[in-house]
Specification:
Blueprint lengths: L19 H10 L11 E2 L5 E5 L2 E5 L4 E6 L4 E7 L22 E5 L3 E6 L2 E6 L5 E5 L5 E13 L6 E8 L5 E4 L13 E4 L16 E2 L2 E6 L2 E7 L5 E5 L6 E6 L4 E7 L3 H12 L12 E3 L7 H14 L5 E4 L20 H10 L3 E6 L3 E2 L5 H8 L13 E4 L2 E4 L6 H9 L2 H6 L3 E4 L17 E2 L6 E2 H23 L7 E3 L2 E2 L7 E3 L7 H16 L5 E2 L1 E2 L8 H12 L4 E3 L17 H14 L1 H14 L4 E3 H4 L13 E3 L3 E3 L9 E6 L3 E4 L5 E3 L2 E6 L7 E4 L3 E4 L13 E7 L5 E7 L13 E9 L3 E9 L8 E7 L5 E6 L2 E3 L3 E2 L5 E6 L4 E6 L1
Parallel strand pairs: 14-30, 20-21, 20-34, 21-22, 22-26, 26-29, 29-31, 31-32, 33-34, 44-48
Antiparallel strand pairs: 1-10, 2-3, 3-4, 4-5, 5-19, 6-7, 7-8, 8-9, 9-10, 10-11, 11-18, 12-15, 13-17, 15-16, 16-19, 17-18, 23-25, 24-25, 27-28, 35-36, 36-37, 37-42, 38-41, 39-40, 39-42, 43-44, 45-46, 46-47, 47-53, 48-52, 49-50, 49-53, 51-52
Length: 823
Amino acid sequence: MEEELNKEEKETPVIATEHIEDDIIQHLNNPVTSLKPIVKQYLTAIVEVKKEDNRFYFSDGNARVEVRVVSDEIIRVRMAPHSVFLDDFSYAVPQVDQRVSTFRLEETDEDYLIATNTVTCKLNKETFHISFLDNHTSMVMSEDSSPMHWEENVEFGGYYVFATKNCLPEENFFGLGDKSGNMNLRGRKFQNWNTDAYSFGWDQDPLYRTIPFYIGVHQGASYGIFFDNTFRSYFDFGKEDHLKTSFWADGGELQYYYIHGPHMMDVVKRYQSLTGTHKLPPKWALGYHQCRWSYYPESKVRAIAEGFRERQIPCDAIYLDIDYMDGYRCFTWNKKYFPDPKKMIKDLASIGMKTVVMIDPGIKVDDNYWVFKEGKENNYFCRRSDDYFMEGHVWPGRCQFPDFTNPTVRQWWGGLYKELVDLGVAGFWNDMNEPAVFGAGTFPNDVRHNFDGYRGSHRKAHNIYGMQMVRSTYDGLKKLMRNKRPFTITRAGYSGVQRYACIWTGDNVATWEHLKLGNIQCQRMSISGAPFIGTDIGGFSGEPDGELFTRWIQLGTFSPFMRAHSAGDTSEREPWSFGEPFTSINRKFIELRYRLMPYIYSVFWEHHRYGFPILRPLAMLEQENIGNHFRQDEFTFGDKLLVCPVLEQGATSRVVYLPKGQWYNFWTHELLNGGNEYDIEAPLEDMPLFVRAGSVLPEYPVMQYVGEKPIDEVWLNIYYADYEVNSFMFEDHGDTFAYEQDIYLEKKFVVKGDGHNLFIEQVVEGLYTPNYELYDYNVIGLPFEVAKVFADDKEITDFYLDERKRLRFKSNKNFIHIKIIGA
């Protein structure tokens, strides 16, 4: 478990011991080994306590521990092995302290207790064990199994730091960001070290991103641990000892946040309060995107774009991979392939197709290349410990790499996008930023980084390099695009990356296993605080057949980021590439994405404003049901749509578990009771999809791209329930930051039936004025004959039942009360 350290940084094996006699014997047997202290040092009995505002300091006479009350539900713990804390700086948490109502320090014969209104942090005087308790139930949520401890690192300086906690027999674990394999993490061990993992496999680790945050669930309650340490870190969820879970790192500080629930949703929202939520993306970014490595020359790009319009398959963006550049030099154009990029981009925009281009961090060593010259002259590139430039080979050949942890470099890098923005490029894709280097894998450990003035080697900066690159991109674009929202994508990142970019899961494979894996990865990333996530639809490498691609399109329709992407040595895979019936089915589901755009956009708003995850696994919906801790196929998109992708080749049906409550089959409108499993028909043209009873599901007319035509009226699909249900709809300009000045509308719909009547109430917040005037109602599942319909006490006489027995009528968008009265 925690004894397994990074072998790359250990010249000789290290054996943990607590006895000086063993050190002496080790020295006599091997004097070289004794140059490295091998004693793990543990906290001992508390001998001193000190309070400073919301921070409490406990000492055993050597080490110090800070316990900081961040909020009523969040407590931070830091350990300084020799009482000297590192500078308090984090790329993940811009602002530590939040609102706290009250807190107090109490002392008993055995313990010190730091209590808020919600949670108590208990420190045992004798053992220095730390535990966290729910004040309302007195349940111990998280508890040390051994005291926090450390081991000196003579080679690099600093310490290896360790925390080990009890793992209850029925406890299960979720989150941890970018991990492959099953949703439930129990019984597995992981490493965090951002890695270019081409064609990764099931349970392969590590992958592209580091999100050191997990959720523990036991006895129907949950909590979170966020280990804010950017060094190579490790997590063991009961693999080596089923009664212990541990996290440790190869350097830095033992600093973690305890985040209280008791519901998983609460834990995720509070984690987001620390690390931030995703800014509202431009609405077009929620449409369908088409990508390939690579579409070139210009004639090919135009043909693909026109292919979508000719076939009436909606699409909002086409991507240019690295072949659009001159010799893979970033911020340049290959004039042979793209002689007039400005005209091409303008022509694509005229048919509603946005252009997105890739930018990598490797800058070709070439004194005739303006980007390299500027970086070299201003000392913007990373250097090694002996002051040589960090050089490595990537796509352009020999390259140097900007130090994105330097704020001056970030400002310079952000300004480099000006010409591309002026040409009309709408979005930017940062790749290879783990950082990846051919042959070596990544930078050597001795590369130096500015780290915003807090300095560090690549051991410290590796996991945040990609996040700081896309931060540079996002901040630069926000200035260059003025009030328009940037659209950025990153492959690598760390906790907090959601503030700057959306993510895709990396270079996957065209197999049914990867379809299953991608489904789990997107759910896991969503509850790990990075919800704008998607896969390469169809698989990046390998060759899908029509069935696999179509099932992937169906899943992608309900992925927050919907993009098809493929490698250059594979067959092309546009939605029409496999012929009929696949083309028509793919069109149907992509059209469904655009029909549901007002709902999808509203779910993004709920995430941005309130911290709700976009995708929610069944374990989150019913955490008290341990059986759901092992279900990983179904999820909800927002809280109104339950998605049940078909993940088996040749399947024409699948077993679906519906959470408690009532659910309507989206396709047939059949009403089913939740808390049960059902065998649902799923021919290739369908995917099981359910709507929570009581929902108001807004719908737009099908468009070929977002904003293609004005909205004359919004269709409100209302699903009857005999209990009260709230739904939300968000509207604004769709591509500006005006919503930050309240130029938006947040509409709350309250639906309640009583068996004989249905009541709908609308409450509106914000200052935006949409262009349409009417709602077109589509009321589903009424259990009674309709006698009358009233909007704000004015009778509507032209209601009717359509061929599917749905109640249809229209009203002004500004209604306050709708009453549907039974006969």
